[in-house]
Structures are given as C-alpha cells and as structure tokens.
Amino acid sequence: MTKHPLVQKEWKTSRWVMLIFTLIYGTYAVLFNNSITYNKERYLFSDGSSSNFMHELYAISMTMLPLTLIGIIILVILLFSHERNLKVGKFMGSLPFNKKIQFKIKYIMGMVTFTLPFLLFAITMIFIRIQNNSWLTRLYEYAPAGGMLVKQESLGSLLIWLGIIWLIMMAVYSFLILVQTLMGQNIIAGIIGAIIYMVPWFLIYAVPATIYLITGRWCEKDVWDSILFFFQGVPRTNIEPVIDLGKQTLFREWNHVRVYDYHNLGLNLGILIVVIIISSMLAYRFILDNDVEKNGDIVMYTWFGKILISGISLCSALLLPLIVVVFSQVENSILTIALMITGGIIGYVISKRSIEITQKHG
C-alpha cells in the first residue's frame, strides 16, 4: 500500500468493506463448489436437457449480486463520510491536494475495494470450471444438441457472466458516486441513489399496471423484461424444441433443450459502459464545483433538487394507487386518477419540505 496520505485515508475507510466483499465472495465460492460436487452424480444421470454448471452460477447471482450492491452502497456512503462533515470538509479543502486528485484517488480506491475480492472470486470460478471440465464434456457427448449445451457450459460463457457482473457493479458504483457529488448528506445520498437505481424496475411494472387500471388495456413489456433480467446478471431461459435428434442416443425420448440467452447482449453491455463513463465524468465535473458550505444540505445544486422533487412526485403518484388496489382489490379508473393526484401531491410536499429544512439549517 502506497504511503500517499490520501490513499492511506481512503484505505482506512474502505478496508473493512473489502473484507466484507471477500467474505461474501468466498462464501459463495465455497457453496458453489460444494453444490457442484454434491450434485455431480445427479447431473451425470440427468437427461442432458440443460446446462448444469452455469445454471448453478446463474442461480447464485440472484442472491450474490443484491448483497454485493448493498456492499457498494455502504462503501460509497463511507467514502464520502468525511467530506460531508462541514469542519472536515473545510480541512480537506485546505490540504495541498486539489479536488481533482482527491476525487481520482477516492474513485480508484473504491473501485479496488470490490474489484480485488471479485477478481479472486473470478479466478476461483475459472479454476473450478477447469477442474470439472472432463465430466461436463462427457455429460453432453451423447445428448441431442450436446454441442449447444457444451457451448453454454464453456469457459467463454463463464467469462461473459463474470464480465457482466463486474460491469453491473461498476455502473452502480459510478452512479452512486455521481449522486454523492450532487448531495450534501452522504447517508441520504446513498439511500436516494439506491432508490433511483431501483426506479426503472418500478416503472416497468407500475406504468403498465396504472395504464391498465385507467384504460383496462395491458401494455406488453417483454423487451423491458429482457433488459431487467440482464441487469440482474441472469440470462433469460427459453425451452426450445430439438427438430433433428440426429444420431441414436441414450436420450431418444428427449426433444427439448433449455437455452440461456442474453437478449441484445451488445446493447446491454453498451448501456453499462455508457453509464460508467458518463456517471464518472459527471461526478468528476460536479465534485469540482461542490461548495463546502452546503455540506449538510440534502442537495448541493438547485436544479438537482427540482429533478429530485419531480421524480419523487411521479413515483408517489404511481405507487399510491397500486397500494390501494392491492389492499382493497378495487379497480376503478376515476379512483386511480384521484389517488395518482393525491400521491403526487404528498410526494411533492414531503420532498420539497425536506430539502427546504436542510437548506435553512444545514
């Protein structure tokens, strides 16, 4: 570890979070290896209609990724815990290091905090895959469409999955850093950033549901579902028929295969990369303009406060009718519109008042 004082400062802040990431990834690596070892015999006598190694990985990502993202939220909150203290912020501003250097070191140290443990996890997964290569290859040797399954179980598929998970973490991390540069309270910024990250999931289901409550017509959302599956680190599963069974096999009655498919892989990867680049560039730009005197305010910039109020009002307008419908089981278009207006007003008043209070006393 370098003796640079800023690196030492960030290391003291992030080292315990790195330990948490290491424990999370280490636990999942052990559980995964044990699962593969325990189920090996069952896999060898299965009908060969689906991949097994990658299926286990996709299953653990459903819980591992959310835990990792919670860790990233905590990490980003801690990274800005000193700067958002008014006295400490003024002291940091008096040091012989400009904001550019401070931000670059903070961003890199935060990235290293979760990337190094994940890199160790990735190496472990690759080792486990190579260690089990012989029986995985033999498993699909006599299966119809075995070539397709071997491809899905390949080292390339594993590397793609690992790359996607890391890019998702980087995108969330960069976005949360951006939110921190726009707000003067690090804990609230972490919570708001996490909520904003979940907003697309909410809108994908809330908007069609609200339209249905008002018009009685349901909007298709298959395309959005594919994107949402991707950003959970999981490909969509299709059960596809095998038209030509080819040679005689041990699976003569077998006529379908479970296919994992990342729909629009290039587009989704591009979205992640763009989010990383734009978020980090904007965060770098905004941190230079942060006014230390505004530490303690919910928002550092008036225009962001307006965006925040508008977003909270919109989500409140969509949320209240859905809550009422769930508990009352009453579907009425006029009631839905009235509840939307009420929810929007409640969200607007609460968010606006909260920002004003901190601006007066922050």
Précis, in short:
Helix 1 (5-44) runs antiparallel to helix 2 (53-79), helix 1 runs parallel beside helix 4 and helix 7 (155-182) crosses helix 8.
Specify the overall morphology. Answer: flat
Count of helices?
12
- Largest sheet features: 2 strands, antiparallel
The total count of strands amounts to: 2
How many structural domains can be distinguished in the coordinates? 2
Fold and architecture overview:
By secondary structure, this protein is mainly α. The protein folds into 2 domains: 279 residues, no CATH class; 62 residues, no CATH class. It is 75% helix and 3% strand. The chain has a two-stranded antiparallel sheet. The two termini are 37 Å apart.
Index terms:
2 domains; 362 residues; single chain; flat; 2 strands
Break the fold down into its secondary structure elements and pairings.
Blueprint: H1 5-44, H2 53-79, H3 86-94, H4 99-131, H5 133-139, H6 146-152, H7 155-182, H8 186-215, H9 222-230, E1 236-241, E2 256-261, H10 265-289, H11 302-328, H12 333-361
Antiparallel strand pairs: 1-2
Helix pairs in contact: 1-2, 1-4, 2-4, 2-7, 2-8, 4-7, 7-8, 7-10, 8-11, 8-12, 11-12
